[in-house]
Design goal:
Elements (H helix, E strand, L loop, with lengths): L2 E2 H29 L4 H16 L7 H15 L4 H15 L5 E2 L1 H19 L9 H12 L6 H14 L23 H19 L5
Length: 209
């Protein structure tokens, strides 16, 4: 299967569906260790992104992801807006002028997103952030001959849940110190939803090689 404009639109749409379904849960996670607005901010911003891209007939992936990124930066707010905006802005540069890509090219675009996240958030694995999901997932995808859907789901979920065991080193949660242990990081949770949505798009095409 190739990944093109229609698959990208479905990815964002599915992500939006999951965020809307889980916005109260994401807010509860953030109330425990953050500002308490992650769920509502993400629900507002991702819905705006869907509204932006749905009616547009994109000729290539770069401009679609750029619109998603700029909308998230403008509408999500807080720390999450710039971070998720970076995800899609970096991917847009990697996918500029490409109408469709294979799995390897998509993974490299997501690897560029990860690099952007690490540069912007100054976080690394173990800091109890979305990087704790992103880096293992990108490593998995880069080292796989083909994207294994169940493996993508299980690794992203496992790494999200593991943030419960970590002490926060970044953001507002870091002020809690050891009291942050025992809570799932909200950014890791929304990142899991992002990758779960991508896995569903892959499943529609069986696999991406």
């Amino acid at each position: 299967m190739t990944f093109g404009v229609e698959q990208a639109k479905r990815w964002i749409s599915k992500f939006n569906d999951k965020i809307q379904e889980q916005k109260e849960y994401l807010t509860e996670l953030d109330q425990a260790i953050g500002d308490g607005d992650h769920g509502l901010n993400m629900a507002r911003g991702v819905q705006e992104a869907v509204n932006k891209i749905t009616p547009v007939d994109y000729g290539e992936l770069g401009s679609l992801f750029k619109d998603v990124g700029m909308t998230l930066i403008a509408k999500v707010g807080g720390a999450s807006g710039p971070l998720y905006g970076t995800v899609f802005m970096k991917a847009s540069l990697a996918l500029k002028d490409k109408k469709e890509v294979d799995g390897k090219e998509l993974v490299e675009a997501l690897a560029a997103s990860l690099d952007g996240l690490k540069a912007r958030g100054k976080a690394q694995v173990g800091d109890k952030t979305m990087i704790d999901v992103w880096e293992p997932v990108i490593e998995l995808l880069r080292n796989s001959q083909a994207i294994q859907l169940e493996q993508l789901l299980s690794v992203s979920k496992e790494k999200m849940e593991y943030t419960k065991e970590l002490e926060a080193k970044k953001g507002r949660a870091a002020y809690l110190g050891k009291r942050s242990i025992g809570h799932i990081d909200p950014g890791a949770a929304s990142s899991y939803l992002l990758f779960a949505s991508l896995a569903e798009v892959f499943a529609e095409g069986e696999s991406v090689s």
